[in-house]
Amino acid sequence: MNTFYITTPIYYPNGPPHIGHAYTTVYADVLARFARLIEKDVFFLTGNDEHGLKIQRFAEKLGKTPKEVVDEMAVIYRDYWLRLNISYDYFIRTTDSVHEKVVMSSFEKLYRKGYVYKDKYGGLYCVDCEKYYLPGEYVEVEGKPYCPIHNKPLEYLEEETYYFKLSEFKDYLLEVLRNNKIVYPEEYSLEVISRIEKEGLRDLSIARPVERVSWGVKVPFDPNYVIYVWFDALLNYITGAGYATDLERFEKYWANVHHVVGKDILWFHTAIWFSILKGLDIPPPKKVIVHAFLINKGLKIGKSAGNVISIDDLLARYNGPDGVRYILSRVFNMSKDSEVSFELMDAIYNDELADTYGNLIRRVGALAIKKLRGKIYRREVDKKLSEQIMVKMGNYLERMKNYDVPGAIIEIMDLLREGNAYVNNTRPWEKEDPSKELYGLLELIRVSTIALAPVIPSVASKVADEFGFKIENPEKLQLGMLERYNIRNAPILFKKVPAQGNT
Ligand code: MSP
């Protein structure tokens, strides 16, 4: 199977994207670019989650209509993704009419099949999460129920609603979660399984009376109700791939779909999503790749905590998209929250991009131009060096295929350090004809640059261009394939960020 379908969560556009959204999106983009590099047929979907109370209230605050706000925000999100060089194939908006139709027809299909029914509901609700909290799920502050994520009081709501029979899917979910290795890393799968085993599954309210929430997709056979924003949002993954417009295309990509999500939305992307899909006769996704949070001084970075780091600041400080992409990919962690500060990000950028990769390019490029007018002909690569290159490349490929982007990057950084050590040890500047050393080093640079291309695409193509090689499938790389390097320039790729502490 040669397809690779990858998705990000669709984001709530109640503010511009920040470092946390960029973290997920850049990671998904690196996987998409890697898959393209190894010649997969890639479809990369991102977009915005535009309905629901959160957006309705945000618009009210701005004195605009929700539609005006989401239209403006869609432009802003796309612009940030462009500036971060995100290579998405389609940007889905839940207000797209094709999507809305899928939401309605899916709701109706589940209703007809008996998976949706009408009944009363009362409970404690968090507007920011757009969900009801059950006892045990919320925290208490001064005796009052609070949302554990947003640290705000919960509101009591009572309403007639439509329920989705989540409880009917218990056996199906447990079987799929236990046997199919869908959720990655596995610890998250175990978390969901143990929650289902301990708490069981309660039916899920999937509609709101229109007087409460007016901004959303109407229940097709009962216009007094608006469909729950999560039901609406999750379906983006099928609409975006052509479920309603091109079934063949949908099936082709769905067979290999990878959802990248933060751990905050794990439950929605497993218990709820797999059950909706099953109800619609669609197989579960191939993989749900889950990551932990970016935190600052121990708190999840986000609007609620007020500790947001802006993408604009990152782009300005790290000289454009590649620096930012590298840093976010490098601190990426599936299991543990990553504490970030400008101090740490400066150190990664300066030590790895400027002093290790940038420095090697500059040194080898300058030596090649000075000693051999930039023309380096093929020589046999030192056995030890060539072994190091091939071993690191093998490790890199294995890690990338396991979605371990930071691990893959570390392999390549190690290799680049070996490269710098090789320059120091072999002292090519003292040799009359250092072709052998320089050719070996250029091979190391070529392989490393290709490996880093999904993370730092602009810099990688610039190096390939200046040094005269191609960015090609890393699975097919062999050493000694290039007859001649033609070095036109020894660029300074990453200007160091001056030490300025934690600003
Ligand atoms: N709209 C829903 C998702 C619907 S998907 C069918 C939503 N949107 S969100 O705007 O709140 O974005 C949530 C996602 O943004 C998280 O799951 C995570 O991927 C990313 N992150 C936001 N802040 C983050 C951090 N501080 N750290 C890591 N990821 C973060 O939930």
Automatic annotation (TrEMBL):
Cofactor(s) this protein cannot do without: Zn(2+)
Primary localisation category: cytoplasm
Any Pfam family hit: tRNA-synt_1e
Gene3D superfamilies, alphabetized: 2.170.220.10, HUPs, Isoleucyl-tRNA Synthetase, Domain 1
Keyword terms of this UniProt record: Aminoacyl-tRNA synthetase, ATP-binding, Ligase, Metal-binding, Nucleotide-binding, Protein biosynthesis, Zinc
Enzyme class label: ligase
EC number: 6.1.1.10
Entry's Gene Ontology cellular component terms: cytoplasm
Protein name per Swiss-Prot or TrEMBL: methionine--tRNA ligase
